[in-house]
Task: structure prediction
Amino acid sequence: MLSTDTNIYIDVQSIENSRISSLDENNIPFGRVFSDHMFIADYKDGSWTDFKIVPYGNLSLSPSAATLHYSQTIFEGMKAFYNTKDEVVLFRPEENYKRLMRSCERMCIPKMDKEIFMQGLKKLIDIDRKWVPKSEGSSLYIRPFIFASEEFLGVRPAEEYKFIIFTCPVGTYYAEPVRVKVETKFVRAASGGVGNAKTGGNYAAALYPAKIAQEEGYHQLIWTDAKEHKYIEESGTMNIMFVIDDGNNRKIITPPTGNTILEGITRQSLILLAKDLGYEVEERPVSVAEIEEAIKNKTLKEAFGVGTAAVISQIILIGIEGNDYDLPAIETRKVSNHLLKELKAIRSAEIEDRFEWMEKV
Ligand SMILES: *Cc1c(COP(=O)(O)O)cnc(C)c1O
Result:
């Protein structure tokens, strides 16, 4: 194991002609423009080795690479952006490292030292610094992932893997309020399954139910528990929060992360922030019946998804067993708007980083 201050050796093969001049910062299609370089590490003969930064490009892979058949693969999603002091910063990158290691454990992928993740990440962002967009609300989306690359068609944990980080500039993301359907037939994650690992199969399994919901006029699903479909779990690929206010008492409620709900870093950060700002937060099972009741008696004030992509994605309509309920107007949503404003101020260094969340590159 490497000690905490060990520098790893990273071989850098720079691109000859940067593609940066082709980037129109005011018009970046999501997930289609990739920065000049990528970081690669290989796992073979029992250890992570061969750290390098190379021009972004295609990989050469055996058709029998294990991940293509049995999905032994995991990923992370995070962002780098400019703050108001003209520094490039990351939001809680160690949390992404820790979560990636938890996903490794569940998917039988060998773990790696923190230095490999952090130094590979920071060096890559530093080399492609000019790809971090500067316009308000834009950022550099970062995709670290690991997959089984061994050429072997047997079902067992692979003996060879690749860890890659690449990045894409993303423009100002205006999160359109969404119409969501409470899913009571299909399942995202069952207890004991892989719901709390960030692994590709969870996403593949969600495509079909999401497609049906879209045909019915919704944007997204609210997943419920696999056993009874009584309790709310997540919204699409985001965690979910509600604000209930009965006139005497206002509180934020959100389902607890267990083995079926992914532990969102945005979720955890917003809970800390909300408590710090004096809001009451309850992490406890939230039933569909409770939400339906709160909508009917008008105590449900806000519902929103939380995750790295949009931070807060407002829910404007919830469909429960064929009944569509309109939720309060976005401009009335004091709690989520307050949390978003405060988090943005911390991230952009307009106010003190009192939780020490930001890390300079
Ligand atoms: C990534 C993800 C989230 C959100 O996590 P963040 O760290 O906040 O981006 C929530 N749910 C699922 C299923 C996810 O894959």
